[in-house]
Amino acid sequence: MKGKVSNIFEKSLICIFSFYIAVVATANIITRDRRFSEFENRYLATRPEFSFRSLVKGDFGIEFENYINEQFPLRDWWVSLKAAAERISGKRENNGVYFGKDGYLLQKFDNVDTEQFTKNIESVIKFAQKSETDIYFMLIPSSSEILKNKLPSHAPHESQKKIMDYAYGEISGVATTVDIYPELAKNRENYIYYRTDHHWTTEGAYIAYEQLMKAMGLNPLGKDEFRVETAARDFYGTLYSKSAARWVKPDEIRIYTPARDTVFEVNIVDAGKTMDGLYERSYLEKKDKYSVFLDGNHALAIVKNLSLQNDQKLLVLKDSFAHSLVPFVANNFSEVHMADLRYFKTDFHGYCAKNEIDTVVFIYSVPNFCSDNNLVWLNAF
Questions:
Q1: Span 184-228, pLDDT tens digits
Q2: What distance, in Å, lies between the first and last C-alpha atoms of the chain?
Q3: Which residues pair with 317 in a beta bridge?
Q4: Whole-angstrom Cα distance, residue 297 to residue 280?
Q5: Contact by Cβ (8 Å): 322, 200
Q6: Which long-range contacts (CB under 8 A, 24 or more apart) does 112-116 make?
Q7: What's the angle, vertex CA 74, arms to CA 68 and CA 76, rounded to 5?
Q8: What single string gives the DSSP state of each residue in 257-297?
C-alpha cells in the first residue's frame, strides 16, 4: 500500500512539474520579448542569433540561458518575491544592496580595487602636472558611509573616509582638494541622500556647491536665492531596482531654480540637442527620474549662463553625481563643460586651450573613482 501511495505521489509531482514547464514554455513563446525593464532600470538580454560556430564554442548556450533568464514570464514579480523571501529569512542584503534602517537602501562597499584606485590617482596627478589650468579634485562619499548608522548591524563596510584622505594626500601637491565629508556628516540627519537611489539629493549637492565655490574663492548663492520645487514624489532609484525591495517608500526629487531671472542654455553635444534650461522634465514621467538633471548621462554637455557677464569657464570631469551639482555651479560660470570619460575621449589639455577654459574640477563618487577604468584616457593623447 505504501509503495502505491508513494508511486501516485511521484506521478502527481511529475505531472505538476511537467504542466508548469509547459505553461512557462508556452508563455515564453507567446509573450513578446521586453527590450528594457522599467523595474530594474536596465536593458534585458535579447534572443541570440544561432550559428554552428557559436554553438560549438559554447557561446550560444550561455547567451541563450541568459536570454531565457531575463525574458522569463513575470520576471519582475519573481525578482521581487525573491527579495522579500530573503528579507523574511533574515538576509540583510540582495544583489549588493543592504536593507538599511528607516527604509534606506544602501550600496554595499566592502571590496576596494586598490590597483585600479592607485592607477586613477596616478592618472589625475599626471594630468594635473601637465595642465596650465587650475585643477580641483572632489570625492563624494556614498550614503553607506555618511549614513553608516543606518547599515545593518555588523555589515562589512570599507571606510570611504580613509580612502578620501589617502587620495587627497597624494593629489594635494598638484591640485586643490575639496573635502566635503565634514559638512555632509554634519548634515546626516537631513535629507541629503535618496533612500532608494545611490545618488545624493539636491540638498546634498547644494552642500558640495557651497564648499566647492569657497575653495575656488567664489561666492555661492544662498539657499534663500533659489526657488525650491518638489518635482516628483514617486522616485524609485537604482538601489530599488537592484535590490527589488518593493516595500520601501519612494523618494522626492526637488529642483532648485534661481529666484532672480537667469537664462541657461544646455547643448547636449553628442545628442545634437539643445535645452532651454537645466532640467529635462519629461523624465519626471519615467522610471529614470534622476535624468531630469541635465538630461542624464552624455559624453559632453555644455551649460551656458546667458545672464552672467563674466568669462569664467569650467570643465567638469565627472560621474553622474555631478548632474545635480552642476545646476548650482552654473550660477557662477559663464560656461560649464561636462565630460564623461566613458564616452568622450580627447586631448583635454588641447580642449581647454581651444575653449578658453581656465578651471578643471574632478567630481567622482568614492565607489566610482575606485573602480572606473576610464581615467587612463586623461593622458592618452
A1: 999 999 999 999 999 999 999 999 999 999 999 999 999 999 999
A2: 82
A3: 339, 362
A4: 12
A5: no
A6: 112/158, 112/163, 112/370, 113/370, 113/371, 116/370, 116/371, 116/372, 116/373
A7: 95
A8: EESS---EEEEEGGGTEEEESSB-GGGGGSS-GGGGBTTS-
Residue 194: partners with Cβ closer than 8 Å, 6 or more residues away = 143, 200, 201, 235, 237, 251
- The x, y and z cell numbers of residue 144, run together, are 553607506
Distance between CA atoms of 367 and 353, rounded to whole angstroms? 31
- 12, pLDDT greater than 90: no
Asked whether the beta carbons of 230 and 254 are under 8 A apart, the reply is yes
Going along the chain, which residue ranges are E strands? 36-37, 42-43, 93-94, 97-99, 105-107, 134-140, 176-177, 226-235, 251-258, 264-268, 273-276, 300-305, 313-318, 335-339, 359-365
Each residue's pLDDT tens digit, 295-345: 999 999 999 999 998 999 999 999 999 999 999 999 999 999 999 999 999
Q: 66 in helix, strand or coil?
A: helix
Residue 193: beta bridge partners? 200
CA distance 331 to 304: 9
Q: Is the dihedral of CA 292, 146, 244, 97 positive or negative?
A: positive
* DSSP code, position 50: P
Residues 315, 357 contacting (CB under 8 angstroms): yes
Residue that has been written with the C-alpha cell 555588523 in this structure? 154
Domain positions in the chain are 2-92, 103-379
CA angle 123, 125, 126 (to 5 degrees): 65
* Torsion 278-136-237-68 (CA) sign: positive
Q: Which of 336, 331, 205, 310 is nearest to 258 (CA)?
A: 331
Distance between CA 165 and CA 148 in Å, rounded? 18
Beta carbons of 194 and 200 less than 8 angstroms apart: yes
Residue 109 CA to residue 112 CA, distance in Å, equals: 8
Q: Please say whether the beta carbons of 136 and 216 come within 8 A.
A: yes
The DSSP output letter for 101 is G
Region of 90 on the Ramachandran plot (φ > 0 left; ψ -120 to 50 alpha; else beta) = left
